[in-house]
Amino acid sequence: MTTKEVTLGAQRFDSLNQYILIKDLGSGSHSKVKLAMNQQDNALYAVKWTHARVNSLKAVRKEIAVLKKLNHPNIRTLHEVIDDEFAKELILVLEYCETGPVFTRFSTTPVAEEVLWRYARDVVLGLDYLHSLRIAHMDLKPENMLLCADGSVKLADFGVSFIHDVVLSDGVEKRLVGTPAFLAPEVPSEAGYDPFRADIWSLGVCFYNMAMGRLPFRGKTVFQICAHARSSTLEFNEDLSDDFKDLVRCMLCVDAEKRVDIAGVMHHNWITHGGTDPLARPLTELPHNIVEVTEEEVASAVRTDPLAALLQPAFNLVEFNDRDILMRKGAIGEVMYFINKGYVDVLLDAVGVDLDTIDVEHESDVLVVRQPGEIVGEIAFLKALQGIRDESYVHGYRTATVRAKGPVECLAVSLQDMIVALGKDESSRARIVRSASFKLDQNEEVRLQLLEKTSRTSTDSEREEKQAPFAPKRTIHVLYAEDSMPTQMIVKAFLRKLGNVEVVIAPDGKRALDAHRSINHKFDMILMDCQMPVMDGLEATRQIRSLNSEKATVPIVGVSSGVEGMGHKECIANGMNGFVSKPLNKQKIVDVIQKTLPDLFKND
Question: Which residue intervals define the domain Cyclic nucleotide-binding in the entry (predicted)?
């Protein structure tokens, strides 16, 4: 797996293999999804990272091979699966459905019955196709029904699917999987259940949820929800048709044996408008088919990283506690770390800040944060390569101090083992050398800019001495939204030297918006770059101003080079309080903070 940064026009994007990662589409507790463009065909895809990686891919390769062969207009296509052994994640490359979910279980506005009818016909066609192949979805809910630009609806997310005859099975499922509010009442039974009838129940809950704007059964646990389902009577709004109510009652029949199957749903009066608009004959009424996969398709079902396979025997799992030091600047570096879980801080000594002034307990000394999937220590690897020639003892010197930011789990590998492995994988060697060189060059760029900006003429010194000292009444909390890593580093270094300022960095407008809305932060002001990927600063400002809380009034200062009309007037028109032009320096930052927050500098 190859990750790097690419530039398109004036914007920079991360990439994964041939996929350019354009923007975030959503995230949850176990996964995140990004929009990506495949450079090989220029088509858009949804790339999903999931932490639900099994210990042995051998157990799921056949199932993945089957799911990749599904071909139906109402089933979301799975194009490929990538195994990231470093981050312990599976990465799914999926068909992109532009509009997203047709509904969510948290929505309270009902879907009009005629609109729901159109959605339902597509969904039942997709489910009929799955059931005809003896595949049960097992997690039907509105969020897994995706609306495309052409108006079609596709079933998605087969992460817990039941595939009969692919796994050793007698057709009875015993796993307790799916989303609790949509589970059939027989699912918790120790005797097992029919997964295809359970799908029908889940679909019935979806139809009720969308038509009523609420869920039919509630409870704090799966068992409470199922108990409520067994004992309650369904209630419907009066404006819903009798045919719709009848279909939902047939689907939510507590007795699974009497519950309608997918063919019965497709023939129902509500789906067919009383027989005037029938669907095609259900595939489940035809002889069952099984998706056949070859050994080659099974073997290639998941794309793996050859470097991970080479290094697997050499990896050691290492855990660090909050504030533990993984490496110190200047020390001999003999190990590289692949971050599995948690985050680490790279401290400011990476850009030439005096090591003696670094306080490993202080947040303002953090230069950048590295996250799961990233590597730390590769610059020492680069230096080791440069000095490897005839030395049997391989090492490099650390160029920064790195500290754990909360609990951290890493895979550690010695530089010696890494060099041996990369001798067998030239593409991975080039990738890591490129990444290390980029970070080294980036650090040097920031160091030189800091030196340039801090070198003062005598006139500068006299002017600075005449100005009032930077002495706010309390610590000032600043959110700085900026996508350029060198600029982030420079501004953070300036603010650290300034003192009495704590800064949080957001790499784009969306993350700035999320950080500002978070209950964990209360910012005195926001410095907002106007031009950023995912969401630009102007849009982020408009969304902040629309918040229904006091956070909507936070002072926001636009930051821009002034190109493409992104100047003072444009910033003010979009709700900002002021504007400062790039490049930023220490004095500009002082001036804009004092001007924006004058009450914090007034003498009582």
Answer: 320-414
Q: Residue 480's domain is classified under what CATH number?
A: 3.40.50.2300
Distances (CA, A) of 293 to 21, 46, 61, 277: 31, 25, 11, 36
| 3-state secondary structure (DSSP) of residue 538 | helix
Chain segment 148-174, per-residue pLDDT in tens: 988 999 999 876 666 665 444 556 788
Arithmetic mean of pLDDT, 456-468: 51
Is 504 domain-assigned?
A: yes
Query: Alpha-carbon distance 115 to 203, whole Å?
Result: 16
Highest mean pLDDT among 94-98, 273-277, 547-551: 273-277
Question: In terms of domains, do 566 and 594 share one?
Answer: yes
**Which residues make Cβ contacts (< 8 Å) with residue 56, sequence separation at least 6?**
none
Q: Where is the domain boundary, 299, 318, 349? A: 299
Q: What is the CATH number of the domain that holds 230?
A: 1.10.510.10
Residue 222 CB partners (closer than 8 Å, separation 6+): 176, 180, 183, 187, 188
Are both 434 and 325 inside the same structural domain?
yes
User: Are 128 and 153 in a shared domain?
Assistant: yes
Q: What is the Cα–Cα distance from 88 to 59, expressed in whole angstroms?
A: 16
Report how many domains make up the chain: 3
Structure tokens at 244: 């719709």
Yes or no: say if 403 and 345 are a contact pair by the CB < 8 Å rule.
yes
- Range of the structural domain that residue 328 is part of: 305-454
Residues 278 and 172 in one domain: yes
Binding site: what residues are annotated?
48
Tokens of 585: 């320096």
Residues annotated catalytic, as ranges: 139
Distances in Å between the alpha carbon of 313 and those of 225, 310, 380, 494? Answer: 46, 7, 22, 44
Are residue 495 and residue 569 in the same domain, yes or no? yes
Place of tokens 């002072």: 555
Cis peptide leading into 583, omega within 30 of 0? yes
% of the chain with per-residue pLDDT over 70: 75
- Return binding residues for ATP: 48
Among 419, 434, 454, residue at a domain's last position: 454
Q: How many helices (H) and strands (E) does the chain have?
A: 18, 26
Dihedral pair phi/psi, residue 561, rounded to 5°? -80, -10
Cα–Cα dist 287/61, whole Å: 26
Helix, strand, coil proportions of the chain in percent (round to 5)? 35, 25, 40
Q: How many Cβ atoms sit within 10 Å of the Cβ of residue 1?
A: 20
The mean pLDDT value of the chain amounts to 80
pLDDT at residue 516 above 60?
Answer: yes
3-state SS, residue 83:
strand
445 and 467, same domain (yes or no): no
Does 381 reside within a domain?
yes
3-state secondary structure of 520: coil
H helices of 455-508, in order, are: 458-466, 485-498
DSSP secondary structure letters along 98-157: TTEES--TT--SPPPHHHHHHHHHHHHHHHHHHHHTTEE-S---GGGEEE-TTS-EEE--
Reply yes or no on whether the pLDDT at 339 is more than 50.
yes
CATH number of the domain enclosing 375: 2.60.120.10
Report the distance separating Cα 555 and Cα 528, nearest Å: 10
Residue 278 is given by DSSP the state P
